[in-house]
Amino acid sequence: MGNTSNAVGSAVTPVTVAELPGLNTLGISMARIDFAPQGINPPHTHPRATEILTVMEGRILVGFVTSNPENRLITKLLQKGDVFVFPQGLIHFQKNVGNGYAVAIAALSSQNLGVITIANAVFGSNPDIAADILAKAFQVDVNVVYQIQSKF
């Protein structure tokens, strides 16, 4: 089991071409996601892969957001054995809604899927995105942006 004692309560163990060179040219990869109770796999996207997730243990709320202009949220509560698909490039997330640990296995349609975790990319870029830009984009006070950036 992955170490879930972090700020988000989850651990992702990837198996991509970076970890397993034998996947080169095969167009596939996998990941194991371990969740502490109430842990999340934060909103993120895979620019080069569709993902199919299978729940191995626990109850996991999953969701993704369709593209502009609708930005429609699609969610589903999954039980052990259930499967869900996240379309390529769309922002998606998972949350363990049970009281115990949960485990899911993800299969992806690329050996080099790419992962962009939204909060990390927006608030943890190096160098920082200017706080006034983020404040205007998120319609919050610039001090809120500074506070969030300090966590990354």
CATH superfamily of the largest domain: Jelly Rolls
Global morphology: globular
The second-level CATH architecture of the largest domain is: Sandwich
CATH level 3 topology of the largest domain: Jelly Rolls
Judged by helices, strands and strand pairing, the structural class is mainly beta
In the CATH hierarchy, what is the class of the largest domain? Answer: Mainly Beta
Distinct helical segment count: 3
Q: How many strands?
A: 10
Q: Unreliable runs, pLDDT <50, ≥5 residues?
A: none
What string, H for helix and E for strand, traces the elements in order? Answer: EEEEEEEEEEHHH
- N-end to C-end Cα span: 25 Å
Pfam family, one: Cupin_1
InterPro entries: Cupin_1, Germin, Germin_Mn-BS, RmlC-like_jellyroll, RmlC_Cupin_sf
Binding site for oxalate: 41, 46, 51
Organism: Lactuca saligna
